[in-house]
Amino acid sequence: MYEVKDKKVVLEHGSINKGIIAVASGKGGVGKSTVTVNLATALAELGYKVGIIDADVRGFSVPRILGVKDKPKAVSENEIIPPEVKGIKTISMGSFVGENEPVIWRAPLLGGALEQFFKDVRWGELDYMLLDLPPGTGDMPLNIMQKVPHSEILVVTTPQITATKVAGRIGAMAEKMDLQVLGVIENMAYYQCTECGNKDYIFGENGGETLADFMGTELLGQLPLISEVRRRSDTGKPIVFDEPEAEISKEFIKIAKRLAEREGGFDEKIEPLKLNMNAK
Ligand SMILES: Nc1ncnc2c1ncn2[C@@H]1O[C@H](COP(=O)(O)OP(=O)(O)OP(=O)(O)O)[C@@H](O)[C@H]1O
């Protein structure tokens, strides 16, 4: 599917120079796709070249959130030009089937599609590739992680105990496959009243921190629950792009900077993650 040469992931039609970030969540609906798109936008705003593979083949929502209007263009049997929005190249199952059509995939079939996304798409030179994984820790995300052993995992969770408990399994999955966990992003951390500024911790407090502690990784950021995020995602205008001065956009930029200050590049050997089984 790809090879690693001179610290780069070399693809058929391009390369990835700094990192493959697989965005995972223990369960659906916690904002994984929203985070993927806004983080990609933040990295692009910082000047990095970014691609997104929407690997959430059943619940694909990247095209809608990013505002993709164009279809991928096949220039030959083995070469596809991906749509590009806001400087971000992206490919999604959603570009090949209608939004309302069910996609009945089995993990091996998904593996085939993913391979094609890596091999046949003309990505050009990228700094970061983001993978929006299917939610959970079932066959689908497992299969993807196995196929892309140079990916590093970013875990999205809400602070709610039910969400953090299942997200903890991603750590075990990563450990089994010798994949690094980059950190945890706590989404929907609190709702801030637009009138009085009071913070309401709707889904509980400190869940992200507890999860990060359990995984022996860092809590990269806490994102508030605000209706503007949902509204803009529904209309294809990621908030980081559309309202860069919003507090949540600044938090995304902070997370992107934190990720980008790491050295980057790809090694043959990947250090396994150590789980801290004694954490609360
Ligand atoms: N911080 C936020 N504030 C307000 N709404 C949010 C926030 N994050 C996500 N949402 C909304 O929550 C819903 C679920 O988000 P999203 O589709 O990103 O979740 P997901 O984890 O990718 O779900 P799935 O994996 O099941 O597709 C969407 O309507 C999205 O607009």
From TrEMBL:
ATP binds at residues 26-33. One of its GO terms (biological process) is iron-sulfur cluster assembly. Keywords: ATP-binding, Hydrolase, Iron, Iron-sulfur, Metal-binding, Nucleotide-binding. GO terms for molecular function: 4 iron, 4 sulfur cluster binding; ATP binding; ATP hydrolysis activity; ATP-dependent FeS chaperone activity; metal ion binding. InterPro entries: Mrp-like_CS, Mrp/NBP35_ATP-bd, NUBPL-like, P-loop_NTPase, YlxH/NBP35. It holds the Pfam family ParA. It comes from the Bacteria. Gene3D superfamilies: P-loop containing nucleotide triphosphate hydrolases. Homodimer. Binds and transfers iron-sulfur (Fe-S) clusters to target apoproteins. Can hydrolyze ATP. Belongs to the Mrp/NBP35 ATP-binding proteins family. This is Iron-sulfur cluster carrier protein. It comes from Halanaerobium saccharolyticum subsp. saccharolyticum DSM 6643.
